[in-house]
Amino acid sequence: MDVKTKPQHWFQMEPKSTEELTRIWEQRDIITAPEADLALVEQVLIARHILAPSETELDGSRELVDAFEVQELGVSRRSAAWEVRLKSDLAEFIGPRGQGRFVIGRELARLEFQFRSAGLLMLGESSVARVRGKIFDFGEHKAQLEDWLLPPTPEMMRREVRLMGAGLLILGVLAFYPPTVAGPILGGLLILLGLFGLVAPRRGAFFANGLLLVTTGAATLLGLVLEAQTLIALGPVLTIFWAALSLFEFVWGYRSFANFRKFRMG
Q1: pLDDT score, position 5
Q2: What is the 3-state secondary structure (H, E, C) of 144-211?
Q3: In angstroms, what CA-CA distances link 142 with 31, 48, 125, 255?
Q4: Distance CA 87, CA 95 (A)
Q5: Are 101 and 111 in contact (CB under 8 A)?
Q6: 35 contacts 66 by C-beta, under 8 angstroms
Q7: pTM greater than the 0.70 cutoff
């Protein structure tokens, strides 16, 4: 079995059998590919009762870098405290009273922590993040986590540009139908940048995409404001839709500028 799977596909591959995972674990000493997340393999084998926590190298032999508690936010107002142990090459989450446990390899950890947007125009990040399907509030400990996380990699940057490129294709098609003269022109540019992002993702795409999104949002909103006859022809539902879409383009554009700064390499 080829264990040298690309990082962005490791968590999306089809479920592996216990036999396959056991073979990976037994060959861990000769696996050099950093994208083979042995911490994830360990977690699955423990959950399937193939390994006991005391039998694994990843459970206690790594250097402890930091430790703190975070709050899991549920559907109710009550929250549960989880212990987080940051080690040299993995993060270990331990649930209340020891119930529930999972580990995240440091190599791909930045992709696992999905922090919510916050602040003016949603350009900043809050201390609340989704991790493995759970919502945690890291509070004042977010700075400690940021210090532990590895810097963004070129692969992460390319992944974000490709995702944005797919979204631009959708907005580009929609831009052909708004009540603005410049709609078809802006739509064509959105499609062009979307295709470029998918085929040849570069950091500069964040800046170019942000500039075009802000321009498209402004043009759409201006068209709705200045052309009263168009508003009447569209009706209230479509008017609200295009107004909301223009605001979304504004916010997404400004967030793209933030990504341009975030993925500065070196």
Answers
A1: 42
A2: HHHHHCCCCCHHHHHHHHHHHHHHHHHHHHHCCCCCCCCHHHHHHHHHHHHHHHHHCCCCHHHHHHHH
A3: 32, 32, 10, 20
A4: 17
A5: no
A6: no
A7: no
